[in-house]
Amino acid sequence: MKFQVLALFAALAVANADHVHPHLNRRQDTTSSTSSTTSSTTSTSSTSSTSDSASSPAAGTSTTSTVAPAGTTTTTSSGAPVPPGSSTSSTSIPPMTTTAAAAGTAIPPLSEISSAMATRTALLPTNTYTAGAKPSFAGAPGLPTPFVFSAAEWPTWDRVPPTDSTEVQAWMKELDGHDIPDLTPTVDGSCGGDPAAAAAAADRGWWTCGGHTRSTDIVACPDKLTWGVSFDDGPSPFTQYLINYLEEKQLSATFFVVGSRVVERPTILVEEYMKGHEISVHTWSHRPLTSLTTEQVVAELGWTRKAIKKVLGVTPTTMRPPFGDIDDRVRAISLAMGMIPIMWSRTPVGGVFDTNDWRVAAGYVKGPESFQTFQNILGNATQMDTGFIVLQHDLYEATVDLGVGYTIPYALDFTPKLNLVPIGQCVKKPTSDLYLESNTNTTFPPKIAQGVDTDGDGTVDTKSGDGGSTAASSNGAGSTVDVAFAFGSSLFAVVAAVAAGLI
Ligand SMILES: *[C@@H]1O[C@H](CO)[C@@H](O)[C@H](O)[C@H]1NC(C)=O
Ligand SMILES: *[C@@H]1O[C@H](CO)[C@@H](O)[C@H](O)[C@H]1NC(C)=O
């Protein structure tokens, strides 16, 4: 069995060598050894990768993990990223196997923060919130009844959702009347993977290659020395450690959440929201959006928006593209659907404010390198005329520990003094503007002519949609399944199964 699967894995890896985005990662899937202990009471899933997770050992137990050596294009035990510019060779397979030590109980010394570190027990929210409870911002609707996951109602976790559903076809109507540039999807969302698109990056407004932005993007905080704090890819079993730390320090942050994780761990999302953090859309399956068809982008955004609304009762007016991979087509789709893109900062000389914490989770660097990157970012930030936004993650314990143990404390003690606030606040938006249901601003997001049918049931259901109506009808448009992604997913499923010690 093991041999067969490894052979399949090798075949898939080779088959994928030219198709997998250099950054394409499964970073939205948390370690197979932790997922089963999340707060979700509804972790049933029909997908292979997630059922692998669901039946794997609990976090905090001694477990076998599989770690790919750096420089291969495999994913790691934590489902972490593939390094840019690496090449695959079958000699790198199978990955080496290590046995993790017993559960850690505290934040390790910086030098020990790595993909192989012992992880603390998954931490579950202890607060319970009843239907109707409201967060503290103006116009907030009450929480819906607690979310119950039913696999039949949602697309498969961590896959690009099908585009022929009634929901996606209903959301496609939100693009009517908007000028969506007719750009061919990029090959894989990377510059190297699509030299022709890269050569036209300025025209395309492609952020990935050269950092091209448009005035509608949020790329920094206007006030100097203000840090718009954010965490991507959760909710995870470690997010609660972060929430607790932020509360202790009386800080708030913006959480860019993945739809698949939202329906997996709804109570953690509720905790984020009710504790005063800002919630924003980070897609359903964390693919590079420029590489998807327009219908697929709509599906990725629409399902995540719907998941957040189901759990919290609100529809975000902002989004962040995974990998920062946005161009004028993806921007226009996002804006038409009522979501303003939020990026992370770059310096005029090309410095990108990415802490590289995800590279720690991937096993490519360790804590000290990522922390040094963060220190450089703050150093560079002091030279900027504006404030700044930094990329960090709450999907892995390594990245959460870097945040609560190192980067945030360092920033709090920094000279000159920094102001740490969530991104909506740093751009001076009242929290009510960040959700359609409470938003009273008619220009943020840009006017949504037909209103928004967040749940995709064929009826407009936001306040801003009062004047319109959209009758949903499935026109049976064919699904455009992306073969590369299908392969990528199979590859991941196998890696996850091996990592979980199931095979
Ligand atoms: C800015 O970042 C670069 C590259 O990370 C680093 O070498 C430099 O020291 C930083 N500048 C400051 C003032 O910290
Ligand atoms: C609406 O949002 C825009 C963009 O952020 C802002 O310039 C404007 O002042 C806001 N209007 C109101 C009434 O808050």
From TrEMBL:
Signal peptide stretch: 1-17
Transmembrane residue ranges: none
Subcellular locations according to the entry: Cell membrane; Secreted, Cell wall
Cofactors that this protein relies on: Co(2+)
Molecular function (Gene Ontology), one example: metal ion binding
Region entry Disordered, spans: 23-96, 446-476
EC number of this enzyme: 3.5.1.41
UniProt-listed Pfam families: Polysacc_deac_1
Topology term for the membrane: Lipid-anchor; GPI-anchor
GO biological process: cell wall organization; chitin catabolic process; fungal-type cell wall biogenesis; polysaccharide catabolic process
Catalytic activity entry: [(1->4)-N-acetyl-beta-D-glucosaminyl](n) + n H2O = chitosan + n acetate
Residue stretches making up the NodB homology domain: 225-428
Sequence ranges of Low complexity compositional bias: 30-96, 451-462
Keywords from the UniProt entry: Carbohydrate metabolism, Cell membrane, Cell wall, Cell wall biogenesis/degradation, Chitin degradation, Cobalt, Glycoprotein, GPI-anchor, Hydrolase, Lipoprotein, Membrane, Metal-binding, Polysaccharide degradation, Secreted, Signal
Listed GO CC annotations: plasma membrane; side of membrane
Enzyme class: hydrolase
Domain of life, per lineage: Eukaryota
Family: Belongs to the polysaccharide deacetylase family.
Protein name according to UniProt: chitin deacetylase
